[in-house]
């Protein structure tokens, strides 16, 4: 009976497995729980340089939702930290859940900021460049904060 249950679970996992894109990875921004944080000392530019992001990868932003948020913005807003510029047209997506999984589904630059007053200027901004295919070298590299899907 127990063996049958195990087989059923294994079969289910095998059924679900192909739905995941081979090579896609999930990154917890900042590498730790509540890694999207001000005052944490995390240098997001340095964090992003640790990895090579490819289409299909996922960024996970974890934060206290009453203290931070997450806006995907244009490069201009990323640089100015001014989300009201251009009538707010520089804001692409607003996330506020505190656990936001952002699928990087296009090969392009992505820019993220926290819109709480002063946080972006204080360092809560992240820029990543997403390439069409992952570099082969990274496939075998195991690094903190990255886990295979
Ligand atoms: Cu913030």
From TrEMBL:
Phytocyanin domain segment(s): 25-132
Domain of life: Eukaryota
Alphabetical UniProt keywords: Copper, Disulfide bond, Glycoprotein, Metal-binding, Signal
PROSITE patterns: COPPER_BLUE, PHYTOCYANIN
GO molecular function, one term: metal ion binding
Signal peptide: 1-24
Pfam (any one): Cu_bind_like
GO cellular component: plasma membrane
InterPro entries in UniProt: BlueCu_1_BS, Cupredoxin, Phytocyanin-like, Phytocyanin_dom
PANTHER family given in the database record: BLUE COPPER PROTEIN, OS06G0721800 PROTEIN
UniProt-recorded name of the protein: Phytocyanin domain-containing protein
Organism: Sorghum bicolor
